[in-house]
Specification:
The chain contains two helices and eight strands, in the order βββββαβββα. With 126 residues, the protein is of the alpha+beta class. Strand 6 (57-70) and strand 7 (75-87) form a beta hairpin. The model has no long low-confidence stretch (mean pLDDT 94).
């Protein structure tokens, strides 16, 4: 499964979201994003997902990191893109909390496995 993730960077912090109750992986911290649909590029996917999940329009930058995580049912290939700018006010639809996390404590959050792997890689490039 090909999935995208949005990396928002502000000062020395990264934006993480917590999955709301009733959602898959509820309570896990992650980068917002979602599954790439047939015919979509990663950049198109993350723009669509940010509009659907956070009600914002975004300018997508470079691919910053990627990870692959296997479960008993599937393999997730996560592509993390830098969000250069966004327009509008973030509204949570599938998350119940968001937090700007300082880089030095990024790995301390209870992140979903593929997202944690992205965080490890981001610490190398940011």
């Amino acid at each position: 499964m090909e999935v995208t993730a949005a990396v928002f960077v502000k000062d020395d912090g990264i934006l993480l979201m917590r999955r709301a109750q009733g959602q898959s992986s509820a309570g896990g911290w992650e980068y917002p994003g979602g599954k790439i649909e047939p015919g979509e590029t990663g950049e198109q996917c993350i723009k669509r997902e940010l509009f659907e999940e956070l009600c914002i329009e975004a300018e997508i930058g470079d691919l910053l990191a990627e990870s692959t995580f296997s479960t008993t049912n599937s393999t997730i290939h996560l592509l993390a893109y830098h969000v250069k700018n966004y327009y509008g006010t973030i509204q949570l639809t599938v998350h119940d909390s968001m937090e700007w996390v300082p880089l030095h404590s990024l790995l301390a959050h209870d992140q979903l496995p593929a997202d944690y792997m992205i965080s490890q890689k981001l610490l190398e490039v940011l």
